[in-house]
């Protein structure tokens, strides 16, 4: 199974930037589609970005143009660069991995890292 550990969250002023990192272990990282989701209190978890094993990316409309997902297979790490942050981006951000035998959805999740954007 894939094991995921997020880092890089924190407090930032609106308009600022953060870079989240997700270290993966336990399986072949390069073969897994990876993603980032977020969840604010009282709201459903929302997928905000994903990247396939081939490097193709997709973003939720709410973050398109501001967030960039990338991966470094040599380091077994996926990143989420977050620019032009808004207070509504405040949430716990979770790294996710798709099982090798799955064509959709995500099967493994990290513990989450808090991102807080002040006005």
List the helices and strands and how they pair.
Blueprint: E1 3-7, E2 10-13, E3 18-25, E4 34-39, E5 46-51, E6 57-59, E7 67-72, E8 77-82, E9 91-97, E10 108-109, E11 113-118
Parallel strand pairs: 2-11
Antiparallel strand pairs: 1-3, 3-8, 4-5, 4-9, 5-6, 7-8, 9-10, 9-11
**Beta strand %:** over 45%
Count the DSSP helices: 0
Shape: globular
The major sheet is characterized as: 7 strands, mixed
Radius of gyration, CA atoms, in whole angstroms: 13 Å
- The secondary-structure element order is EEEEEEEEEEE
The helix/strand class is mainly beta
Overall mean pLDDT stands at: 93
Helix content: under 10%
User: Gap between N and C termini, in Å?
Assistant: 40 Å
Low-confidence stretches: none
Q: How many individual β-strands?
A: 11
